Amino acid sequence: MSDIVTASDGRDIMPGAFAPENREYNMFIGPNHPGIEGNFALKLTVEGDTIIKAKTEAGFLHRGFEKLMEERLFIQNIAIVARICVPDPDPNEENYARAIETIANIEVPRRAQFIRVLVLELSRIASHLFTFGGHAGTIGLYTMPNWSISDRDRVLDLFEELTGGRVYHIYNMPGGVRRDLPDGFKDRVRDVMNFIEDRLVEYDDLFFNNKIMLQRAIGIGILPRDKALAWGATGPDLRAAGFAHDVRRDDPYEVYSELEFEVPTATDSDAYSRTMVRRREIEQSIGIVRQVLDRMPEGPVWNKQPNPLKWRVPAGDAYVRTESSKGEYAYYMVSDGGVRPYRVHVRGASVTHGVHILENMLVGARIEDASQIMFTLDACPPEVDR
Amino acid sequence: MADTELTQRGAWNKVIANLKKRSLWMLHYCTGCGAVELPPTMTSRFDMERFGIMPMVTPRQADILLITGYLSVKTLKRVILIYEQMVAPKYVVGFGSCTINGGMYWNSYSTIKSLDQYLPVELFLAGCMPRPEAIVTGFNALIDRIDRGEANSWEDYYKNYDFYHKNQLHAFGEIETHHDIKSDGRYFGIAEAQR
Amino acid sequence: MSGQSKTMDTDRPAAALGAARSAADLVVAIAADANVAGFSVKGPRRVEGRVDAASLHSFASALRTRVGFEHLSAISCVDWLADGQFELVYHFWSYRDNCLVSAHVRIARDSASMETITDLWQPASFFERDIHEMFGVTFQGNTDLEKYILTDWAGPPPMRKDFVSRDFAHDHFEFKDYEPSWDDLVTGGYHGSRGVAEGSNE
Fold first, then answer.
1. Which residues are paired to A24 by β-bridges?
2. Which residue from A10, B84, C66, C126 puts its CA 20 to 30 A from A79's CA?
3. What is the dihedral of CA C119, C125, C129, C132, to 10 degrees?
4. In the sheet where A328-335 sits, what is the strand order?
5. Could you state, in order of their start, the residue ranges of all structural domains in chain C?
6. DSSP character for C5?
7. Which residues contact C66 (CB under 8 A, 6 or more apart)?
8. How far apart are CA A149 and CA A147, in angstroms?
9. What would the pLDDT profile of C98-151 be if each residue is shown by its tens digit?
10. Is residue B10 part of a domain?
11. Cross-chain residue pair C123–A356, CB shorter than 8 Å
C-alpha cells in the first residue's frame, strides 16, 4: 500500500496521504440516486471503498399523514390511507378497516374476509416482484426488472378489474369490501397464479441461480440473529435470520387461521437468503390464493354501515397488526366517539429496517454493496416518513 | 410562399427539433408516490424506450425532470438544485394532481401545492396516479410540442427568475445553488420580463 | 423447519422461552413479576393496563427480563388537549405467548418529559425521536433526539392538537385560482402552466 507513495529512495512523495484525518471522506448517496429505494438519503463516511459510518436521512416524503387523517372523516381517510406504503398499499387499507371494526365491534362477513386475504396476498406477490426488480437493478442485471415488473403488471390488471385502480385500491371498507368478485374473476386469478408459478422457474434460471448474483449476494449484508431480534427486525429480514415469526400465523387476522401455509426461513441471513425467503413466500402466497379461491363461501361482502358521512365510531382504541410484504405493519387507532379519528399512529415495517438496522449493516460494507443492502432489507421510505 | 420555412435557420431548427424529440432522457428521481407507475412504463410491457426516453441518473445529462406527485418542502430544495444543474433546454413535467393544485395532500403542512410557482412547468399530467398509458400519451404530447417549437418554458425561468426565486425563498429559505441564473439568462440572450 | 428455530436458541432472555401462556395467565404474571396490577384482557391476544410515568422504566425492564416480552412493536402518543395530558402507549409483543401488552402512561402536557427505554429496547429510539419532533415530549436519557423527518421545520410540533394543518397550509402555500384568465395563458402569459396533455386522466 505504501509502495505507491514511497519513492525508490525512500522519500514520501505524498506526505499526509495516509494521515488519519485524510483517510476518511464524506459521501452522500443523496435522494436523487437510482441505488436508493425511493426518496431517501444516506450520509456515509468512507475510507477507501469501505463504509465506516452511515447515517440515514428521511423526511423527503413526509406528508403528515397522521395529521391529515385526524382532519378528515372516517370515510374520507380510506381514500388516502393506501398511499402510506407505496409498493404494498393493501395492508394499510385492511389495517384501517380492521381497527375501526375492532373498536366499533363490527362483524365482517365471511366472504369478505376471504376476499381481503385474496387482495392482501396478491399485493404481497406484486410487492415481492417489485423488490426482485429493484434488487437485480443494484447488481446490474436489468433483465430481471423488465421481467418481474411486467409480470407484476398482470397482478395489477387483476386489481384493476376487481377494484378499479391498479396500485391504490380504495377497496377495503370498515365492514367488508366494496364489491363482489366479477364473473369469471376466479379463473383469471388462477391463470395468473399458474403463470407466475411457471415464471418462478425461469427466474431461478435468470436470477436466483445466476453465478454473478450468487457471488455478489452471498455473504453480503449479514444480520446476525441476536441483532435482528434486538434491533426489532420483522418480516422476511427476521425470517432470513432464522427466527420464524409471521403475524399471519402468530396473531392471525381475517381467515388466516383456517388456511394452511408455511413460513419460510433461512439461516445465513445475508442478502441472498433474504431474497430467497421472499421468493419462497411468493410460492406460499400462490398456495394461499388457491385455497382462498377454492374455499370462498357465498354470501354478502359488505356489512354496510349507515350514513357514512355522519358516522361515529364509539370511543375506544385498538392496535391491529398485519404481515405486510416488508414486515410487521401496525395501526394504533384512538377514537373519541366523534366523526373523525382522534389519533391514528402508523407503525410501518421499515421504521426499524430502514433506519437503525440499515445504518448498522452498512458499517464495514463496501460502497458498491450499500444499494444492495438497502434493497434486500426492503426499506421503504414512505413508511418511515408517513 | 412559406419562405420562412425554407430559410437555413428554419430548416436547421426543424432538424434539431427532430433529433431532440427522439432522444429525451428523463432524470431518474422518484420524488413522490407517483413514482411507482414509472417502472411499469420503463420496463417491457409499456416500454418507454421505444420513444427514445430513458432514465438517466445525473441531472447534467437529463432533459426531462419528472416530478412524480407531491413535493415536500424538503424535497423541493433538492429539486431546485437539480433543476438548475440541468442543461437547457429542459422540460419539467408535473405528474399527477398533486403538482397541479395540491392533490389529496391539499391540507398538508409539508407539501407544496402548486409546482409552477417554483419551476416553469412544461406539461401537467392529471391523475392520481396517471396510468402508464397516460404517461406515454403525455410524453408524446411533449414530443409534439418540441417538434412544433413550442416547448420553451425553460426560458421562463430566466425571464421571471425573481418570481420563482421569491416563492422558493418563501418555501424553504436561502440556498446556494452555485448557478447565477441572471447571468446565464444574459448568456442565452433571454431578456428579463419587464414588469 | 419453520417452527423449530424459535425454541432452540441461547440469545434470548430465559423468560422468553417455554410454553405459551394465555392472556389471563399473563395478567397474573405481570402483576406478580412486574409489580403492576390492574392489567386486563381486552380481546384475543390483547392485554392492556395503565402504568405510572415514574414506574414505567422498571415495569418495562421487568416485562422484558422476568415476563419475557422481547419485541417492542411501537410507542404511540395521543394528545388529550382537554385533559392537558399526553398519553404514551407502549406496545410490547411476546414471541413466546403470541400476545400484545399495551401499557398506557399519562404525562403532563406542559414541559412533557418521560424516561427513555432505549437502554432496554433499541427500536424505542426511533419512536421516541419521532414523538419528540412531532409532539415535543422530551425523553430523559435519550441522547439522539435530533430532528429526523422535520429537519427544515420551524413551526410548532405539528401533531399537537392545537396545530391545525389546514390553516397552516392555507396561510403558507398558494393554491391555483380556479378561474384563471385563459386569455393570458393562451397568448403566452408569463406564469401558469403551459399545456395540459390530452386524454391523460386516470
1. A47
2. C126
3. -40
4. A316-323, A328-335, A343-347
5. 4-186
6. G
7. C15, C33, C34
8. 6
9. 889 999 999 998 888 888 998 888 889 999 999 999 998 899 888 888 888 888
10. no
11. yes
Q: Name the β-bridge partners of B94.
A: B67, B124
Chain B residue with Cα closest to A85: B33
Q: Dig out the grid coordinates for A176 from the structure.
A: 367488508
Considering CB atoms only, which of A71, A234, A330 is closest to C165? A71
In a domain, A371, yes or no: no
**ipTM, interface predicted TM-score of the complex:** 0.87
Cell numbers 402555500 correspond to C173
C-alpha cell at C111: 414541559
Spatial separation of the C-alpha atoms in residues C101 and C43, rounded to whole Å: 11
Coil, strand or helix at A108: coil
Using one digit for the tens of pLDDT, what is the confidence trace for B93-110? 988 888 888 888 888 888
What is the extent of the structural domain holding A272?
73-318
**CATH architecture observed for domain C4-186:** 2-Layer Sandwich (3.30)
The H-or-E segment that residue A29 falls in is strand A24-29
Whether residue A31 and residue B78 make contact (CB cut-off 8 A), yes or no, is yes
Q: Do B138 and C197 touch (CB under 8 A)?
A: yes
**Of the candidates B82, B75, B144, which has an alpha carbon nearest to the alpha carbon of residue B112?**
B75
Residues 163-202 of C with CB under 8 A from B: 163, 165-166, 168-169, 172-176, 190-202
All 3 cell numbers of residue A137?
A: 437493478
Taking the model in full, what pTM does it have? 0.89
For residues A178 and A308, give the distance between their C-alpha atoms in angstroms, rounded to a whole number.
13
**Hey, are the CB atoms on C73 and A334 less than 8 Å from each other?**
no
Q: What is the CATH number of the domain that holds B128?
A: 3.40.50.12280
Contacts 24+ apart (CB under 8 A), A95-99: A95/A320, A95/A321, A95/A322, A95/A329, A95/A330, A95/A331, A96/A172, A96/A174, A96/A331, A96/A333, A96/A344, A97/A172, A97/A173, A97/A174, A97/A175, A98/A253, A98/A320, A99/A318, A99/A320, A99/A331, A99/A332, A99/A333, A99/A344
The total number of structural domains that make up chain A: 1
